[in-house]
Design goal:
This protein has 27 helices and 35 strands. The chain is an alpha+beta fold. Strand 23 and strand 24 form a beta hairpin. The structure holds one RNA strand.
Length: about 850
Amino acid sequence: MKYEPQKIEEKWQKKWEEEQTFKVNEDPQKKKYYLLEMFPYPSGKIHIGHVRNYTIGDVVARYKRMKGFNVLHPIGWDAFGMPAENAAIEHKIHPSKWTHENIDHMKKQLKRMGFSYDWDREVATCEPEYYRWEQLFFIWMYEKGLSYKKRSSVNFCTKCDTVLANEQVEGGLCWRCGTEVTEKVLDQWFFKITAYIEELLEYCDRLPGWPERVMTMQKNWIGKSYGCEVDFPMVGSEGAIKVFTTRQDTLFGATFMLVAAEHPLVMQLASGKPCEKDVRQFVEKVKKQDKLMRTSEYYEKEGLFLDSYCKNPLTGREMPIFAANFVLADYGTGCVMAVPTHDQRDFEFAKKFNLPLIVVIQPKDRELDAEKMTEAYVDEGVLVNSGQFNGMENTKVLEAIADFLESEGKGRRTIQYRLRDWGISRQRYWGAPIPMINCDKCGIVPVKEEDLPVVLPENVVFRPEGGSPLAALPEFVETTCPNCGGPAARETDTMDTFVESSWYFDRYCCPDHDVKPGLDRKALDYWMPVDQYIGGIEHAILHLLYARFYTKVLRDFGVIGVDEPFTNLLTQGMVCKETMKCKEHGYLFPEQAADGKCHICGQDVIIGKTEKMSKSLKNVIDPDYLVQNYGADTARIFCLFAAPPEKDLEWSNQGVDGSFRFLNRLWRIFDDYLEDIKAVPIALENVALEGDLKALRRKTHQTIRKVTTDIEDRFHFNTAISAVMELVNAIYAVKRPAADEKIALAVIREALEAAVLLLAPIVPHMTEELWQMLGHETSVADVAWPEFDPAIASEEAMTIVVQINGKLRSRMTVPVDEDAEKIKADALADEKIVALTKDARIVKVIYVPKKLVNIVVAS
RNA sequence: GCGAGAGUGGCGGAAUUGGCAGACGCACUGGACUUAGGAUCCAGCGGGCAACCGUAAGGGUUCAAAUCCCUUCUCUCGCACCA
């Protein structure tokens, strides 16, 4: 019988669905395991990255299930977002329709891959029953001061009448219409993630199951720095300019002051002075400068003297104050003390404006001369020109200067963070409405709980020029104030879609949307936290940080009982493929470039770099194509075999062939033996085996051991698969026993059954089929994971390597329980060793148990 | 610039705690079967005639280094004028 994946795959998928094989419920008797993969955005079709991500997750879910865990393995849709709205504008299809059609199609595709989801828990975040509770949590957050409205500057396109994300600004122009982007000050909603900043940071060191690099990225993103706030008194007026610095060791070298151009202080200082007009112009110019450009290293440093001075608090020196384009308004106090000798930016600025340089740190190996410096000295050294601190090492003087500033009342220790509050307002339609009402009399008033959800209206008009369709819909906007009953206007901003993805894993735990308040604490206590989370590295900061924050917020509301949502995180690599180009026709899809020729013009195809699969580079493999030509099982096993999960996977069509060939190879030998082994029970307990059969049985048990640890401890599916390949090769290597050689057939049956069970999480359809062919009646998904017998797995003889001075010189086979002294003696008596050591003096002999003997000789 | 990670045959990758480098697969070569083979099975496959040499390059620690340490180079990712 031939291996026909299409036939058997659809058969088993139907059966799993009918029998609800993967439906789960809370069961206090069983140990739970919550396996979660990042849910997809319903963009239209699943791509190979989804296949990889969900295959990895599926293997772990099925493996844990066979290990006896009560496994929660859900899926859903991150269904709000811009592409749906763009489709509405371009193709005149309602975002809701577009999204639901995509979900329907992708759902079919996922089912066709055979993933073991509990589909009863499926969630789509665009449903009012989902975002209803998010709106309630928003109101709770508002009441606690965790969500607030603030004026803040954003990228704005006047033609499209909308805010643009940083990513939507291309070279200072709007990505859609090409209009110059301006900064606009708008009232925006924020989540106060900074209220949890210390806890978020602290837990970075308490999540050992997360990859170090993700944690490092999060820590850097939070960006905690210890330093001092220092007061620089104004000259000729009251008050002082406050500055944040981490380099108080250079304070004596501060010779001028820089203020961010946007800082209100700038106009304040300039007002009434002759420079006022110029300053105003300068500020306007800087505000217009593109944010991306402005933060580029190569951007010209510009500044303007404000005709004002302040005083260095330690030296008393008068310092001119400048407005500068490169000072960040929203970090620290928006003002920086400039130390041109020890900061490159300040150095460049000082040279440009001919400002004084004072060296305050001298390197140990040479002497700096301020006159001759060509760049700032930023390394370690000893303080000079620094009063009582002279002679101290700059790295050690930080505390002393901080103490001094505090005792003199001229400054104080502070901590600064890079992380800003999370701006969640979007002037977009396809998102969860922010449940707030603006009343002229009462101000901002939350919608009453019993009036939730604020449902997104369907009958909106999408304007090709952009802008929020909600604001243009009077029946949505016009309402009454919940407080005073007077006329009021609804908030028309919607929430950032990252809000939905910050708690969808909670929703999966309790699919009943009608429980109040939204989530069932008992179910959450059983399932949460997520034991294993799997997804792309691209979410290392945003989604993972937001979800951690939101979990802490819900915890403080008593909704959930965990501090952190995800115990273990696996970040899988990207799927890449080489690009193919035709000189005339540009990038070609793989099917347009078969046999190395462009299918449009016949020219030779140019093979380009290996890049992440993307539509624009056309280096994509359609999962449907794989399913049709090879079946889901081949697609699954290839994704796992080609690379370990955390690394990028380079696509290889020949590799897919190889995987398909392996499945056929297993199928064939299984089919070949089927009739003979069907009747043979496994009863090898009291049978003494010899030779080939003994070796095969040993291999079987060794393979079980290896595959188990590879999956359990490391998620190294590629080596697990290669171990099974070795087992299958070993079965092929055994001489075909006759139909009446029952013991031999029993050994082979055991090996084949082991191969089937070990592969069951990886290629579930084929293994279900083979399992059934053997006469079993239960689903292979419900069979217990095989156990190995250490006695059978252990080798009776071991190969000991004999080295001379660490170089391989001979090998010997000895019984496993051989005495160490005997092994050493045997090694020295070995024919090759004797020949090589006869003229040398043996210094010592090292025996590494079960591995090698190293003979150290002196020549 | 700062931070993190990586660099092993023609290719993807193994080597789990410092202990036989190159498992497994792909590609390639040869053989068998065959009217035929792009199917299948079997064998070979880092370099070198060899002694030997080989894990980006150089140095070090060690009886022993792909693995640990130092220097350099290259690549990937993240942050990036954060004071």
